[in-house]
Amino acid sequence: MKACVIVFPGSNCDQDARGALTVAGADVRMLWHRDRDIPAGTDLILLPGGFSYGDYLRCGAMAAHSPIIEAVKRFAQSGGLVLGICNGFQILVESRLLPGALLCNKNLRFICNPCRLRVERTNTPFTNAFSKDQEVQFPIAHHEGLYFLPPDELAALEARGGVVMRYLENPNGSLGDIAAVINETGNVLGMMPHPERASEKEIGGDDGMSVWRSLFAHLKERG
Predict the structure, then answer these.
(1) pLDDT in tens, 196-219
(2) What pTM did the predictor assign?
(3) Residue 54 DSSP one-character state
(4) Which residues are catalytic?
(5) How far apart (Å, rounded) are the C-alpha atoms in residues 14 and 6?
């Protein structure tokens, strides 16, 4: 798998993402937010966690207008796989590659804790190595993680199976306990928990490795 991790001013999980992907066996290239093209042959684009542009205006709002985002949109529209983690999820929402908004946590505080999740869907490129309803643990680290949609749009998201993971003990007030969502075509996933920080037992657990195994399996099947 050839993966690109995009680095924005203020990204702080880019090397974590690179490390997890490398351990999983991926060929990883780092792209700067001012780049305008995605290298040929790229299988996955990963938007990492952090505080892009210092979270000015709104989390992800300024990064959504970086030059690289137009290339990410073209890549996604062509069927390329895109994964946004934490701040990367916020950027995907601000870029309108995913629906909804991410608001301040219900307690108005930054949360940094291990978090138990339930896998809702296994028929996606990102989750096929999990079992349905499997319980996993990834860490979270965010201040704006409350996933929100108006009632009619939330109902539509649920009806089409757009929720991929849910919190078992909702830490931030996300509607429907939503922790991860996928777009209608199934190639863009956003999640607040950090699988890259749960990809080696030596650092607390390797449940996140199944995300990378899923991607490899999907690409192998796709040929």
Answers:
(1) 999 999 888 999 999 999 999 999
(2) 0.97
(3) G
(4) 86, 194, 196
(5) 7
